[in-house]
Automatic annotation (TrEMBL), chains A, B:
Secretion signal, residue range per the UniProt entry: none
InterPro entries listed in its UniProt record: LysR_HTH_N, LysR_subst-bd, WH-like_DNA-bd_sf, WH_DNA-bd_sf
Family to which this protein belongs: Belongs to the LysR transcriptional regulatory family.
Record PROSITE patterns: HTH_LYSR (PS50931)
HTH lysR-type domain location: 1-58
Keywords of this entry: DNA-binding, Transcription, Transcription regulation
Name of protein: LysR family transcriptional regulator
Pfam families: HTH_1, LysR_substrate
Example GO molecular function: transcription cis-regulatory region binding
Keyword ATP-binding: no
Amino acid sequence: MDTHRLRYFLRIADEGSINRAANTLGIAQPALSRQVRLLEEDLGVTLFRRTARGVQLTEEGERLRATTAAPLRQLELAMRYVGSPLARVERGLHIGLPATATGILASPLLDGLSAAFPRVDFQISVASTDVLVEGMLKGAVDISVIDPVQDGRLFYHDLLVEDLVLVGGRTSDLQPGTAIEFAELARRPLILPASPSGIRTSVENTALRLKHRLQSRFSTDSLQVTKSLIEAGRGYGVLPLSACAAEIDARKLRYAPLCDPSLTRQLGVAVTANLELPRGFATRVGEIIREEAARLVGSGVWGARLSPPLSEA
Amino acid sequence: MDTHRLRYFLRIADEGSINRAANTLGIAQPALSRQVRLLEEDLGVTLFRRTARGVQLTEEGERLRATTAAPLRQLELAMRYVGSPLARVERGLHIGLPATATGILASPLLDGLSAAFPRVDFQISVASTDVLVEGMLKGAVDISVIDPVQDGRLFYHDLLVEDLVLVGGRTSDLQPGTAIEFAELARRPLILPASPSGIRTSVENTALRLKHRLQSRFSTDSLQVTKSLIEAGRGYGVLPLSACAAEIDARKLRYAPLCDPSLTRQLGVAVTANLELPRGFATRVGEIIREEAARLVGSGVWGARLSPPLSEA
DNA sequence: CCCAGTTATACCGATCCTGTATATCTGAGC
DNA sequence: GCTCAGATATACAGGATCGGTATAACTGGG
């Protein structure tokens, strides 16, 4: 019943190996093995199946991970920031997220942020990059996760890169194992974002470069609408897998990777340059966004690749 | 960064004294003093003001308590139940709460329950006792917090007793320091629950016994409506303080204690006798409700008195 | 001024954690 | 079937941390 062992356990679950976890934790492997055994004895359950290529969570282990990861993270943040003057900030902070990242990011992010900054009311707006940028320049939005932008009035830093996949309805012929060539996209009706989002420009620029002509029958800025149109068989979507994981699990949607070329979308964190916030606050919030994203990526929940972090002076 | 010290810290905060906390924790006082000092050094903040009559939380201490109590409890429950077959139950559990307890109980209760039973979808219904009892007998509601009932088809056990206060609008003359006699109630327009709830019968029976005639101008089963009517100056309400703490803090409502006689309302936990649930599951859920209530009462958030617990064989 | 009650300090023994060295196990490749 | 690489498990010793006992220092109240 100690955070210590729990942190070890979670790291092992992430790494899938006691050995690798011992390395990243900076302790010796036998010590870690021992802690796992003690934790298992304490709880009276087997947490891992030991194999010759590492360890694998049992059902109980998976349950423990699911129920302890978030509270443990909240504790860590709460203790880290309790001494910080930033924790005293009383204010509303307005966070902007793109629709294609809310499903995976919103809830854990709010958990973490409210643990670190209990006096702050966090508000989340879901909108396209251009709307969020406008909101930030007006001062209505404080910090956003958006597509890359070049604007001197914003601080922007890359967060992660995510592969895009082709998503179709239940009756489509898409299979995760069979990649679809980009040229094939031109022969299928596409449902693209209405506003010039990162995904849409990525798709359109590639089409232009390869001299393909796309059929875009519908366009909408609502991810919800996009997915229901796809589900109804009205067309195909180009989306990050994380944005429709639930529907794919539920067999409502199918997907296939893209190739020749594959497409990606880049996300980053942006804050306004002239923030009326306590010094360092926005930076910390940005760090927590990064940490939360790193955690989701590291645990395999978010299939993306992290961009290199900000240099830590 | 150890649950150990955090638990000690929270207990001290609850008891208001290192000495008393040491007794209830079963360790020596110097050891506990030491742990507090170490925790304060770790975090770099002063958590308590030491006085000759105990200790008092500083602002940072209060913040730490607010941000760590819930996650810590979730961790404890998650670890306690990870090995239990009950944690594998996949089912929806329908919980009934009275409107006057939801505000204070719903959120922490859901936190705790979902940590203990991750596979269960908890649904909360807010209704009056008679509706909840009916729902439980029909099997639509599994477990409820309700006024005391005598019904052989239900298992019922007392949970806590709470004082009722007179609540008026912002312009009323009520003051927390000046108790209002019951006789005075008859001279004020009251807004009482429409259904025969515990609060309403308590008020009406007392009036009958003392031969007072009440003026009940409006009645509604919605606590929301009740409070907005009171706020608009349409009348007075008889409510537990916990049901309108937020509005009183916000200076939208005022209150005064009742005397001659004072009124209370009793709450208990009830489950149907013929549950189609795994053996012991409802019992455990009931225990968690009790624990959560005890925690809220112990920390002073819920100004009520616990009923004696079930005998623990 | 004294006393009861509180928190803080000093020291000691026991426990738990970690690192080093080594054993054991398992799956892949020949 | 055998071997080997890579993984986890066991044994033992050193060191840090925790809790207990004894005692000091502090603060209000009578």
